[in-house]
Specification:
3-stranded antiparallel beta sheet; 28% helix; alpha+beta; Nucleoside Triphosphate Pyrophosphohydrolase
Length: 258
């Protein structure tokens, strides 16, 4: 049997400052999903060919240009899955507000989900430019070897645009919420939600910050280590191990789901 090749993918930690502290937007994957069914996750998905459209290059410079396709995929997936759009009008410099976004979402979100329009075409039609430079690298994980589906996933953190509210797509996703990282972890510990290993460790890292500014500053300052867990079956169950250099404070955990 051939080893599955990891597919490039992006995941986004969409952040805001709530009344009780830092909150992150999370979505629940459909129970019939072929990957992480029923899990509470951050929005995201695979990198598509359209994410490398040359027209996206005009939006990137510096660090953002190095992994532009991943960043565009992140922006596109967030729009598809949550309706939040990290883009603004040409020359304006600011991200769209809710009033400007609403008709764009009405015209294009379902068409984009059905692949009736490409993301580069959507932006061009509305006179928009994506904002890849606002995405802050947060983590980089590759799904363990031996699994039938594998992803080379770059995690990004970003402040949610003012006034834009997440709305899950009711296709791949069945629910969504803004939640404090520590509350999501408590729900998982109480077995009320399913949170897989990689999501859990990144929630634990996010929970160390009290504000969006704090989380983004920490992510910018921290060295990023590529994490590819190794899963071993034992009498106690499956053990997942990661290098200490990854900086998550643990190197192994018993797990039932990835």
């Amino acid at each position: 049997m051939n080893e599955a090749v990891p597919r490039p993918a992006s995941t986004v930690l969409l952040l805001r400052d709530g009344a009780g502290g830092l909150e992150v937007f999370m979505v629940t994957r459909h129970q019939k999903s072929s990957f992480m069914a029923g899990a509470l996750v951050f929005p995201g998905g695979g990198v598509d060919p359209d994410d490398s459209d040359p027209r996206h290059g005009a939006a990137a410079s510096g660090e953002a240009a190095a992994d532009l396709a991943w960043r565009i995929a992140a922006i596109r997936e967030v729009f598809e899955e949550t309706g939040v759009l990290l883009a603004g009008k040409y020359q304006a410099g600011d991200l769209l507000g809710p009033a400007d976004l609403a008709p764009i979402r009405e015209r294009h979100r379902e068409r984009l989900n059905r692949r009736e329009i490409g993301f580069a075409d959507l932006l061009a039609a509305e006179g928009l430019v994506a904002a890849p430079e606002q995405l802050v690298p947060f983590a980089h994980w590759i799904t363990p070897a031996g699994l039938p589906k594998r992803f080379d996933t770059r995690f990004y953190a970003v402040r949610a645009p003012e006034g834009q509210l997440g709305l899950h797509d009711d296709r791949e996703l069945t629910g969504s919420l803004w939640i404090r990282p520590r509350d999501a972890l408590a729900e998982s510990d109480a077995k009320r939600v399913l949170i897989v290993f990689a999501t859990r460790l990144n929630l634990e890292r996010l929970a160390l910050s009290e504000t969006v500014d704090g989380a983004l500053t920490e992510a910018r300052a921290r060295p990023h280590f590529l994490v590819q867990p190794v899963v071993t079956s034992t009498d106690e169950g499956r053990i997942v191990r990661i290098p200490a250099e990854a900086g998550y404070g643990i190197t192994e955990m018993v797990m039932t789901e990835y």
